[in-house]
Write a structure and sequence with these properties.
Distance between the termini: 109 Å
Largest sheet: 4 strands, mixed
Helix content: 55-70%
Number of helices: 24
Strand order of the largest sheet: 4-5-7-6
Strand content: 5-15%
Mean pLDDT: 89
Low-confidence stretches: 1-30, 519-527
Number of strands: 7
Shape: globular
Structural class: mainly alpha
Oligomer: single chain
Length: 527
């Protein structure tokens, strides 16, 4: 047997040889200063960069011109109030049906960026901000997917699928900031699971911002809690496994989780804001049952068929090429799929969570081969994409035309200039725009479904559009004007009712006035 001294000498010689070899190899490699400008630029002109540009181009194509979201107008109005009064509105001031009703602006922090963008560039500013936030989200998803599968082409293909899943939420919506924070949370947790360390101190700060931004923080907390719980469970059951963290990691994660809970209460409204997601889930029944984005997925329409295709792809991959699932990964995927199938509002959430798993299912795609790259062709393709985005970027005129096509712009001019003041029944999706455009015209209802649900106004509105007890409900609120789109059942009924008279009509809307005690036909504009 060898003596300890001989072993030490051999180890020292081996270490010295290894260090010498590493030094020789390092010396043989070209240093950045020795590279030509073409060699330095080459990594930025690779085919992988072109693929990244394609993802962003896809985001641009489907987000272009969608500035007319029904809720953006009252979000702008809220932010304007905050900037002018340096205080939060504590009661409703936008409607005549629930005027003075206690109200909490639970998305105030997400409204400010849109307001500043509008102040800086008008509708173009809102368009720019929406595009930038969407790009940040999908670049984060792409990063998550690549870190999960190590195959960039597969990550890009999966990310493109996520774009199609998320289309319902494209537009200037406050939930986009919630999804951006969700992606950041997943990146931190992924790093912690893969490397055993990560900047966990960022997570409480993230939740502190998230709770003031959007109610989706509650979903983020569920996901974070699932990952934390999985790290405490040693499990090997079939293809599902979970390797517990070390004692030090468990301590750090628990402290981070507790600090995140504490940070939720750092908000202007205290426990009321923290409890709001539960209020919406269990108290706002009418709001959830009758708003379009809270319906379940329909597998007969194109969107539903695409969702089914993605899920079948995942299922076939799991059957043909079985692999081990981490417990945390499986829990998040099942939660996201359930949420997306239950409410189309959460298809974006589903896209964020399942994309890394989908990327692993698509790893049969051919790998990237640097030796086959064509930098000049790549540069041309990137320039072509940039030129296309610049050329098709909608200007202010086009964005205003888009708004005018969806909202009763001209009808509001008529009501302001010619119609005597009186309670007006407005279309639900127009409420926010009406009050933003004409501050003197108080609305019947708008997109803030919570207070209208609490007070029963939303139920009365739903009865009206269903043509149920029309005369009684219009009399209850002393309605003098009805501002509705063409083709609605209520519009048809009132147009054929002698108690109502059509006084204005254009391609977007119609204004009907109660016939009793109507003013003279030669009414002059109000000053």
């Amino acid at each position: 047997m060898q003596s300890d001294q001989q072993v030490s000498e051999m180890t020292a010689n081996s270490t010295g040889t290894t260090e010498a070899t590493s030094t020789t190899v390092a010396a043989a490699l070209p240093r950045p200063a020795d590279l030509s400008w073409r060699e330095r630029v080459r990594p930025y002109c690779s085919f992988l960069v072109v693929l990244t540009f394609l993802v962003l181009a896809l985001v641009f194509i489907f987000s272009r011109g969608k500035v007319a979201d029904p809720d953006i107008w009252w979000h702008l109005h809220n932010a304007e109030y905050l900037m002018q009064h340096h205080a939060f509105p504590r009661q409703d001031t936008f409607s005549f049906t629930v005027a003075g009703y206690p109200w909490m602006n639970h998305e105030w922090l997400a409204e400010l960026p849109y307001y500043f963008a509008w102040r800086a560039m008008g509708l173009r500013g809102i368009e720019w901000l929406t595009f930038v936030v969407l790009c940040a989200i999908f670049l984060g998803i792409l990063y998550l997917s690549y870190r999960e599968c190590g195959h960039y082409k597969a990550a890009v293909a999966a990310c493109c699928c996520a774009v199609f899943l998320a289309l319902h939420s494209f537009g200037p919506r406050t939930i986009l900031f919630g999804y951006a924070l969700m992606v950041v949370l997943l990146i931190i947790l992924q790093r912690f699971e893969q490397k055993g360390h990560a900047p966990l101190w960022l997570i409480p700060l993230l939740f502190g911002a998230w709770v003031n931004t959007h109610g989706s923080w509650f979903i983020g907390l569920i996901m974070f809690s699932a990952v934390v719980a999985a790290g405490f469970v040693p499990l090997k059951w079939g293809l599902v496994e979970s390797e517990p963290w070390t004692a030090g990691q468990k301590k750090r994660v628990l402290l981070t989780w507790l600090a995140s809970i504490a940070m939720l209460f750092v908000n202007p409204f205290g426990a009321r804001l923290v409890l709001y997601p539960l209020d919406m889930a269990f108290r706002q029944k009418m709001n959830i049952e009758h708003v379009e984005e809270w319906v379940s997925i329909n597998f007969h329409d194109p969107r539903g068929k695409f969702v089914l295709l993605v899920l079948l792809m995942l299922l076939i991959s799991a059957l043909v090429r079985p692999r081990r699932w981490r417990l945390a990964e499986l829990a998040l995927v099942l939660f996201a799929v359930y949420s997306g199938l239950t409410y189309i509002r959460f298809l974006f959430l589903m896209g964020i969570v399942i994309t890394p798993t989908l990327a692993k299912a698509l790893d049969f795609l051919p790998e990237y081969r640097p030796e086959d790259d064509t930098p000049l062709v790549n540069v041309f393709a990137m320039l072509l994409i940039v030129a296309g985005v610049v050329y098709y970027w909608p200007g202010e005129t086009r964005l205003r035309a888009s708004v005018n096509d969806q909202y009763p712009t001209e009808a509001l001019v008529y009501l302001h200039d010619y119609a005597p003041p009186g309670p007006t029944l407005n279309y639900y999706l127009w409420g926010g725009y009406i009050n933003w455009r004409d501050r003197d015209l108080k609305v019947f209802v708008d997109g803030r479904g919570d207070i209208f649900d609490y007070s029963g106004v939303l139920k009365d509105y739903l009865d009206l559009i269903s043509v149920k007890d029309v005369d009684a409900l219009l009399g209850k609120y002393k309605i003098q004007y009805v501002l509705f789109p063409h083709g609605e059942p209520l519009t048809y009924v009132l147009e054929h009712d002698q108690k109502w008279k059509e006084v204005y009509s254009d391609r977007v809307s119609v204004v009907l006035r109660r016939a009793e005690g109507e003013p003279a036909d030669d009414a002059h504009p109000r000053p």
